[in-house]
Protein: FHA domain-containing protein
Amino acid sequence: MTWVIRAIAGDLIGQEITIDRDMLVGRHQSADMVLQSAEISRKHATFLLREQALWVQDLSSSNGTFVNNERLEVAEVMLKEGDIVQFASLKFSVLAPLKVLEDTVASISATPTPVVETLVQPSEAVAVSETAQTEVPVSTVAQQMNEQGMPELTQRHEGVELSRDGMPQHVAVPKPAPIPEGVDLTSVKPDPVPMPVEQPISHVALEKEQQKNASVGLMSVIAIVILAILAWLFFK
Structure:
């Protein structure tokens, strides 16, 4: 069985420690549970697991080991859930064993979840069927134009007289097709005008431009200094 203790005082407050085997408590780095405090002995106490029970034993520490505010005077004491174990001024609360928690979770997960079935009311089914029956297919603009008497291509070529060169004779310019009723021409939007996009200046190009400007400025300063020295030597 695995036990858990939680720090309720000291620097480790809120931290939980799992005890699944015998564990040495002390200030030394070789301890299983290292407590960095001057009032803790190098080998202060030990937790023992015996027959699924948790025991604590004091190892003749300088500042003692306490259980529920009583210093251990015997070799070891069996702990139970809710006990307060104290090493000097560091306090820990004994929590429920993990096996109990695992059994509780397993029992909850084993409980079948009720299945909720969604029933369709008869009125809703009738309304859906009536809606499906009253749906009218929407014809396209081309279909509407054909229904209003636009001739097909084969019919347009019938009865056309051809010249010797094969050119059609007495062909009248056809009128534009009438616009079907219900077609909104204002809904047709013109194609968007492409907007010019400025290319971003890369970071490398910007650094090169800055270095170039710095070099030009430096050369200008050097030229001015040289001219000043020459002028001073000339008029000296």
